[in-house]
Amino acid sequence: MPQSRVSAAAASKKAYEQLDAPEPVQAAKDLIADLLEKSKANKVKNDKDRLESYYRRNYKDWFDIEKGNFGIGSQKNQLSKELQQEILQWIEKNKSS
């Protein structure tokens, strides 16, 4: 091996040996603890967002049908006025989805 490679390898080995391993491990533990804390703090919001996303993906067609001729306002529909209003509000809120 050329002298420069040996020197670089020796310097690398020496730097590695001087590395204080507990510091990076503690830093990782601190990072994980911070991320878990943020996750717990946002759990309710994230759960609500996931549920809303699920509804938008899977029930938009049903809500559109309810709004149409066979749904809200028809005699066949047994939904309460309050529920009908909530459905209309949901449709308005999620139009672009």
UniProtKB/TrEMBL annotation:
CC terms in the record's Gene Ontology section: chloroplast thylakoid membrane; photosystem I
One GO term (biological process): photosynthesis
Subcellular location: Plastid, Chloroplast thylakoid membrane
Annotated region described as Disordered, given as residue ranges: 1-21
Record key words, sorted: Chloroplast, Membrane, Photosynthesis, Photosystem I, Plastid, Thylakoid
Pfam families named in the record: PsaN
Chief place where the protein resides: plastid
PANTHER family in the cross-refs: OS03G0731100 PROTEIN (PTHR36327:SF1), UNNAMED PRODUCT (PTHR36327)
Family: Belongs to the psaN family.
Protein name (database record): Uncharacterized protein
Species of provenance: Coccomyxa viridis
Taxonomic path: Eukaryota, Viridiplantae, Chlorophyta, core chlorophytes, Trebouxiophyceae
